[in-house]
Structure formats: C-alpha cells, structure tokens
C-alpha cells in the first residue's frame, strides 16, 4: 500500500523535481532537467539485480543479521552484503540507500546536480553547498535542525532511520539517526544499526560514537525527544 511521504512537501531547491515509482520503489529525484525516463530505466535494472539474487538466496531479503555470499554477485549485492557486515545488520538494511545511489550515480552522466531520496535515504551530488533538513517525527527538533553539506564533500549519502516514524522495522526508539558516508548503502545500514542501539536518551552518545568508528562513516547524529548528539563531519545550521 502506498504511504504518502509528506515530508517531501518541505523540500526546496533549484532543481527540477520529479517522482519515479516502480512497484515498491518510490523515488523523489532532482536534476538540472527532467530525467524521468532515464531514472525509470535504472530503477528497473537495479530491481532486477536485487530480485534475481533474492531468488538465489532468500535470506538476503529476510535476514536481520549479516550473511555470507553464496555465488558470483553483482557489485550492488556485494556492497549491500559488505554494508550489512560492517553495521552488523542484515544486508537488506542497505537497500534504500543502495537504490538511491545506483540511480543517482547513473543520472550524473546527464546532470551536474543530482538528488535522489528514497524513504528518507538520500544520494546527493551537487556543484554547490547544500542544506538538508532533518525530519524527526514528533520531536521538537524536527524541522529545526539542518545539516550543511559542503560542495567538496559531494557526492555523499545522507541516510536516516527512525524508531518512531515510518513503517520500516526498527528495534530502537530514536526519532532520527542520521549517517553521512560516501557509500550510501553503508550510510543506510549504519543508520538502521545506530537507531537500533538507542532505547533511551542516555544511549545517544555511545550509539553515534559506535557509528563514527565504522570505516567509511564521516558523520553521525541522533535525535530523541529534545536531545541531540552529533559527531564527525556534521555541520549544524
């Protein structure tokens, strides 16, 4: 069933924005021009890669813990397996970030600026500094906290997991756990794992420090209620 992603109504930038949906995959994309046709083609390709591998290895879809590979794989599968191992979660915890990056990186050949949002997980490549707002449900900090992304840091993945917002499985209670990484699949998996580790406000510091120690993570932030913690390359504005 389709769930309206109302937070998208708050996005403001100078890009041409458009939605592309293929079955369960629902992307909000911003480019220098409308590239809906090209984006659709990339979504179909990455979904085939994922579905073919799920047929070979059903645990790839369902496992909540890292799994070992079973056969020769596409790079998409290898990166999701690797992200799951680094974050100590199942490989499908990286799927939204992986799809966002796969589509976004392909569109980069047509557009100097590319923004792809997939359920709160973002791949972004830009020629100038950008500001990303953080949606954190009912937290009083929701919509009040923004992250400055310097142009020299692009392309980058910005992924968010929440124990209080959305339908994705979470074992934590953070309103938002945000991870920055050049590897958007890794950012997605680590965001999930970071959120899982936060049951109380007192868990925020330890959880983001754990995330920041993972190779490839450049910044981590978490919000719970009116409390916030951040570490690494998180510039709050």
Strand-pairing-aware structural class? alpha+beta
CATH superfamily: ApbE-like domains
* CATH architecture label name: Roll
Largest sheet, spatial ordering of strands: 1-2-3-4-7-8-9-10
Q: Under the CATH scheme, which class?
A: Alpha Beta
Low-confidence spans: pLDDT under 50, at least 5 residues?
Answer: 1-10
Span from first to last CA? Answer: 36 Å
Number of strands: 11
Global mean pLDDT: 92
Number of helices: 6
Could you tell me the CATH topology label.
T-fold
Order of helices and strands: EEHHHHEEEEEEHHEEE
The whole-angstrom Rg is 17 Å
As a percent range, the share of helical residues equals 25-40%
Shape: globular
**Count of the separate structural domains:** 1
Characterize the biggest β-sheet: 8 strands, antiparallel
Share of residues in strands: 25-35%
Walk me through this protein's architecture.
With 237 residues, the chain is of the alpha+beta class. It has a single domain, classed as ApbE-like domains (T-fold, Roll). The protein contains six helices and eleven strands. Strands 1-2-3-4-7-8-9-10 form an eight-stranded antiparallel β-sheet. A three-stranded antiparallel β-sheet has the order 5-6-11, with no helix packed on it. β9 and β10 form a beta hairpin. The protein is globular, with a radius of gyration of 17 Å. 47% of the residues are buried. The N terminus is likely disordered.
Short key terms for the protein model shown above:
eight-stranded antiparallel sheet, alpha+beta, 237 residues, T-fold, 11 strands
């Amino acid at each position: 069933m389709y769930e309206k992603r109302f937070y998208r109504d708050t996005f403001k930038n100078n890009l041409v924005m458009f939605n592309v949906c293929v079955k369960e995959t629902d992307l909000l994309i911003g480019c220098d021009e409308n590239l809906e046709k090209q984006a659709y083609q990339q979504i179909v390709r990455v979904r085939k890669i994922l579905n073919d591998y799920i047929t070979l290895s059903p645990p790839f879809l369902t496992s909540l813990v890292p799994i070992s590979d079973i056969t020769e794989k596409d790079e998409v599968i290898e990166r999701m397996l690797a992200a799951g191992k680094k974050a100590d979660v199942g490989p499908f915890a990286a799927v939204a970030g992986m799809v966002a990056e796969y589509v976004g990186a392909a569109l980069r050949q047509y557009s100097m600026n590319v923004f792809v949002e997939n359920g709160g997980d973002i791949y972004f490549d830009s020629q100038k500094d950008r500001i990303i707002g953080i949606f954190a449900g009912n937290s009083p900090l929701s919509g009040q906290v923004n992250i400055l992304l310097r142009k020299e840091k692009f392309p980058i993945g910005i992924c968010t997991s929440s124990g209080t917002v959305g339908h994705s499985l979470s074992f934590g209670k953070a309103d938002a756990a945000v991870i920055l990484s050049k590897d958007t699949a890794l950012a997605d998996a680590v965001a999930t794992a970071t959120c899982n580790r936060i049951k109380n406000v007192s868990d925020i510091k330890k959880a983001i420090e754990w995330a920041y120690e993972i190779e490839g993570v450049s910044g981590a932030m978490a919000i719970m209620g009116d409390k916030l913690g951040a570490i690494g390359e998180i510039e709050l504005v």
